[in-house]
Amino acid sequence: MGGKRDVWWAWVASGADTRQVVGMVAGDRSAATAPRLWDALPDGYRDRATVHTDVLAQYRPAGQLLLGFSKSGWGAYSLLLRNPEVFGRAAAWDAPLMTDAPGRYGSGEAFVTPENFRRYELTQLVAERADRLRGGHRLVLTGYGNFRAEHQRFHALLEKLGVPHAYRDGPAATHDWRGGWIAEAARLLLASGP
């Protein structure tokens, strides 16, 4: 019905094994429709979803999206800060972002020397690249389980450097992939603002 200007698209999410429809919305092909589909998914699916699109530019953020918690949240930030031309946004939940030396949380073997670690230290990287990060909200910082103080300190550093970011001091949750934090982090990654 209507003219070609009134075209609607069906956005469908299906189970990987069963191909059963688990979520569906109708809308245009803009960035505004993608979060609506995410919200339409049952909680159990959101926590383990893999997203596949036809990578239409309107709803694909520039670069790849990174999401992680604990050491993988630290790694997501490190990847974006060291490769801002490749990665679009990164979300960290309950991550040791203020780590300032190798050795904690099994990182000693990965970095071997303090000199090598300095190439990856987040506080140094964000300070060096603050100018490149001021063009948009590329960092998402949410939740806590074990590392609330580190998140608060990293948030304060981003504020001091004038780096736009999405920040939520919560929710408190179990330090686990199944802690229920993934849905909010994914929504914030897909959003264009704080």
How would you describe this protein?
- Helix content is 35%, strand content 21%.
- With 194 residues, it is α/β, with parallel strands linked by helices.
- Strand 3 (64-69), helix 3 and strand 4 form a beta-alpha-beta unit.
- The protein is globular, with a radius of gyration of 18 Å.
- Residues 57-61 have low confidence and may be disordered.
What order do the helices and strands come in, and which of them pair?
Elements lengths: L8 E6 L6 E7 L5 H8 L2 H4 L17 E6 L1 H12 L4 E7 L14 H4 L2 H5 L3 H7 L1 H4 L5 E6 L3 H14 L3 E8 L9 H9 L4
What strand order characterises the main sheet?
A: 3-4-5-6
Distance between the termini: 37 Å
Counting DSSP E segments of at least 2 residues, the number of strands comes to 6
Large-scale geometry? globular
Q: Please state the average pLDDT score.
A: 82
Annotated CATH homologous superfamily of the largest domain:
Alpha/Beta hydrolase fold, catalytic domain
Q: How would a textbook summarize the main sheet?
A: 4 strands, parallel
What CATH first level of the largest domain would be assigned?
Alpha Beta
Which topology of the largest domain does CATH recognise?
Answer: Rossmann fold
Assess the beta-strand content as a share of residues: 15-25%
